[in-house]
Every structure is written in C-alpha cells, then in structure tokens.
C-alpha cells in the first residue's frame, strides 16, 4: 500500500518556522526519523521511503499554501495513491497550541490550503492531521498571526509536540486512521 503524506506550508526564508508552516516542520521531522531525504521535483520537495512495511511519499508543495491542491493532485495521480491514503498535515487556529486532531474528512474551516486541495481532488473526504497553533490574535489579524513566529514559550514546547505529531502520522500509516484518532486526538 502507498501513502502520500503532505505537509502544508509556504516556501521561502520569510515563511520558515512560521505557524502556517507547521506542516513542513512535521514532515521534516518525520523524514529525519524515517531516514528519508527530499529532492526537488515537480510541484515540490519529494521524499520516498518506508515506514516499516508501508511505502510513503512525502510532499512539501512548492506551489504556496493557497495552491497546494495542484501538487497534491499531481502526486496522488503520479504515485497511484487513493484519496483515503493521503494524509495532509496542516495548521489550525481553532485548536490550542500543540493539540492534534486527526479526521478522515471534513470542511476546510476557512483554511485556503485545504480549500484548494478539496477543489483539486473534487472532494473534502481526504484525511488530515490538524496541528493547533492557537488563536491569540486580535480580530482581523489572523493572517499576520499564522504567518508569524511561534512565541518563545511555544518554541520551547514545539519539538516535543512535533514528535507527538510524527508518532501520530506513523500510527495512521501503520495501524490506520481510526487507531491514530483514538490515540492522539486532543492529546
């Protein structure tokens, strides 16, 4: 079985380590833990390897967040991956910092990256892991918040929370989405 694991983020130094790039951060940690390296290919950085007995393709789209669906659709078709074997890693302002929510489908909740993926795949029924980045911002300042850096306190906690997210991804790939949801949602 093949899995396509997609970390959402924006390319460029100005976006590195921002809340909106948590998908890239989790995917980088997963690649390191799984001894997978990335190469730049069409629509993004691609890593291929195995997590135990499961074949995985890791994707960090280079299309910028709001056009992530182009990369997801292309690599889904190229790798021959079914929609339910895609896992999208994304930031979520509706969750407290570090909280994880895994779902087999759902709405985009106003997230433009998820909206574009649903548009390109023709369905919202694709799995996602939402990583909470909190919502400590004044009304109307959401964009500045998600494109901003984590607080110093959050940066201290971030490596441990990313490790939990990596474990959740591995569990979703190896034991299935339902098992990962039971173990990691709201933890």
Structure description:
40% of the residues are buried. The chain has helices spanning 22-33, 68-79, 112-121, 142-146, 152-174, 177-184; strands spanning 2-7, 38-41, 44-51, 54-61, 86-92, 100-103, 128-132. By secondary structure, it is of the alpha/beta class. It has a single domain (2-184), classed as Rossmann fold (3-Layer(aba) Sandwich). Strands 2-3-4-1-5-7-6 form a seven-stranded mixed sheet.
End-to-end distance: 28 Å
Shape: globular
The quaternary organization reads as single chain
The CATH superfamily is known as Peptidyl-tRNA hydrolase
Give the tally of structural domains: 1
Radius of gyration: 15 Å
**Which structural class do you get from the secondary structure elements?**
alpha/beta
- Number of beta-strand segments: 7
Strand coverage percent: 15-25%
From the 3D structure, determine the CATH topology.
Answer: Rossmann fold
Count of individual helical segments: 6
Please report the first level of CATH classification, the CATH class: Alpha Beta
- In the predicted model, the low-confidence regions spanning at least 5 consecutive residues are none
List the helices and strands in order: EHEEEHEEHEHHH
* Biggest beta sheet summary: 7 strands, mixed
């Amino acid at each position: 079985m093949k899995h396509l694991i997609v970390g959402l983020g924006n390319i460029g130094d100005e976006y590195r380590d921002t809340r909106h790039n948590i998908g890239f951060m989790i995917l980088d940690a997963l690649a390191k833990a799984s001894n997978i390296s990335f190469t730049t290919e069409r629509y993004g950085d691609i890593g291929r390897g195995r997590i135990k007995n499961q074949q995985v393709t890791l994707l960090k789209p280079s299309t910028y967040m709001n056009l992530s669906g182009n990369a997801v659709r292309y690599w889904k078709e190229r790798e021959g991956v079914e929609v339910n074997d895609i896992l999208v890693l994304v930031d979520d302002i509706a969750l407290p910092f570090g909280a994880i929510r895994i779902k087999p489908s759902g709405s985009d909740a106003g997230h433009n990256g998820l909206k574009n993926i649903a548009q390109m795949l023709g369905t919202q029924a694709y799995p996602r892991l939402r990583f909470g980045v909190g919502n400590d911002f004044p009304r109307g300042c959401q964009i500045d918040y998600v494109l901003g850096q984590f607080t110093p306190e959050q940066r201290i906690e971030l490596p441990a929370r990313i490790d939990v997210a990596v474990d959740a991804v591995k569990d979703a790939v190896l034991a299935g989405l339902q098992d990962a949801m039971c173990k990691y949602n709201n933890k």
